[in-house]
Design brief:
This protein has 467 residues and is of the alpha+beta class. It is 27% helix and 24% strand. The protein is built from twelve helices and 15 strands. The chain has a seven-stranded antiparallel beta sheet with strand order 9-15-14-13-12-11-10, with no helix packed on it. α8 packs across α9. The chain starts with 11 loop residues before the first helix and ends with a strand.
């Protein structure tokens, strides 16, 4: 069986020589000497559109890939054009920037995505369709402008419908019977009687602020001014809704097309612009403006309700409700990383490894209290470590144990404390725990898993260290 290389995309220069999509590569080389043929890797087209879409976020927060044909992007430009001095300047800016990067583009603005798609590809009039006039702009276009399937287009041509105006006034029942429901949907989406939902590459977060710069920003002082302005706007919105930032993401769009991101996190929800600015100040050195930044976008992907603690005049120990403590933790986390700060809460479990929960926020509260009836080690190992033990009498504390090659002679011991395994979670042996102190004063938490004697096996482990 012979295999052929088929043309899947053609450059404008190759088209001038007669090379077409679907042609065999051997035939194309015959009619176009010196033709350069590149391998078409799967997913390359979508990857390119993905990259262009992320770059276009600087012009609109909602950018989607055109799934019909995979050769374009759709943007919701509501409220964006005035930042560039109107729709005409807005289109001119996008076209000139993309052309400077080697792309050939056609753009259009209309009330519906379908009308904008049609005019940008098949329109011969102005690409700026006035509000409410998308139907008039569609009338003179060919049916291909409605994003229809090939079999539907073939039926339309066979019946002599070469322009949209030749069938747009026909009864819907007739069109449905001849061309199907999808045909009516595409027509309704184009003229605006049916909504078309875009699937954005980047889902906009509820709390987000954008700052477009009249001139490219390159200095630290200018970046700080931009961050302050964004935080003031964002915190004002969050405060009115009783929300506070938990994670913040600052995205900087440079004029060379590169995107720089820095993020912050807080231990508790905060809408204090001054506090959040200090956290961003620690990250400004990571921002490389290069030739300049033209757009800043500040997002708050995670927000929580702000719990304002009740101030008590007769106490001076607010504990974790102290806002000064929370801000100190945030600054420490900003310098050394949030992974070094942990807070734990008691859990409703008896098995030691399961008896603590890691708190998500400094304001998290537990439903139960810490168990104080039995002492627990200051440091609990994540997993018990096997040790060698010598015990003279069964069920008595060991005389010595060997841990990491070091022999510890036990001077004092207390126990055993039996902890049964939670049978509804897993099966296995119980544990007998001992608090022991060696001759050097070190205190340890040891346990024996299982009973002595018989056919049952037992092992000794070290599980923690006392202060």
């Amino acid at each position: 069986m012979k295999r052929f290389i088929q043309i899947t995309a053609v450059s404008p220069i190759a088209q001038d020589f007669g090379v077409e999509v679907g042609m065999r590569a051997a035939d194309a080389k015959a009619i176009c000497p010196g033709l350069e043929v590149l391998d078409d890797k799967p997913g390359r087209q979508r990857k390119l559109l993905q990259g262009l879409g992320e770059w276009c976020v600087r012009y609109s927060p909602i950018v989607a890939i055109d799934e019909f044909g995979m050769n374009g992007l759709l943007m919701d430009v509501s409220g964006c054009c005035h930042l560039w001095g109107g729709e005409r300047n807005y289109l001119k800016e996008i076209v000139s920037r993309l052309k400077s990067k080697g792309y050939t583009v056609r753009l259009a603005i209309a009330d519906t995505p379908g009308a904008a798609w049609a005019v940008s590809r098949f329109g011969k009039i102005t690409p700026l369709i006035p509000p409410g006039e998308q139907v008039d702009a569609l009338l003179g276009l060919i049916p291909d402008a409605l994003r229809l399937q090939d079999n539907v287009l073939a039926k339309l041509r066979k019946l002599g419908f070469y322009q949209i105006k030749s069938f747009i006034g026909m009864p819907r029942s007739v069109l449905r019977r001849r061309f199907g429901e999808d045909f009516l949907l595409r027509l309704a989406q184009a003229i605006g009687t049916e909504n078309e939902v875009l699937m954005p590459l980047k889902v906009p977060v509820p709390f987000s602020e954008r700052l477009a710069c009249l001139e490219p920003i390159r200095t630290r002082n200018a970046i700080e001014i931009a961050i302050n302005k964004l935080l003031d706007q964002l915190c004002r919105r969050m405060q009115t809704e009783g929300k506070g930032l938990r994670t913040g993401l600052l995205t900087c769009y440079r004029i060379d097309g590169k995107i720089v991101k820095v993020d912050i996190g807080t231990s508790g929800a905060s809408h204090s612009a001054g506090h959040l600015f200090k956290l961003f100040q620690l990250k400004i050195d990571q921002i490389r403006p290069a030739l300049g930044i033209e757009l800043f976008v500040l997002d708050a992907p995670k927000v929580d309700d702000v719990q304002v603690p009740q101030e008590e005049m007769w106490t001076s120990t607010p504990g974790l409700d102290d806002q000064g403590l929370i801000r100190l933790l945030d600054r420490v986390a900003g310098k050394v990383g949030p992974q070094v700060i942990h807070r734990y809460l008691p859990a409703t479990k008896y098995w030691p490894e399961r008896s603590v929960l890691r708190a998500v926020s400094v304001t998290d509260k537990s439903q139960v209290s810490w168990r104080t009836s039995k002492p627990r080690p200051t440091e609990l190992l994540k997993n018990p470590v096997p040790i060698e033990v010598m015990a003279i009498i069964p069920d008595h504390p060991p005389k010595f144990f060997i841990y990491k090659g070091v022999r510890h002679i036990i001077a004092k011991a207390d126990g055993p404390e039996r902890i049964e395994r939670e049978w509804w979670l897993d099966q296995g042996e119980h544990r007998d725990y001992y608090q022991v102190e060696d001759e050097q004063g070190g205190r340890y938490w040891l346990f024996r898993s299982g009973h002595y004697g018989g056919e049952q096996t037992y092992k000794w482990f070290i599980h923690g260290f006392f202060a």
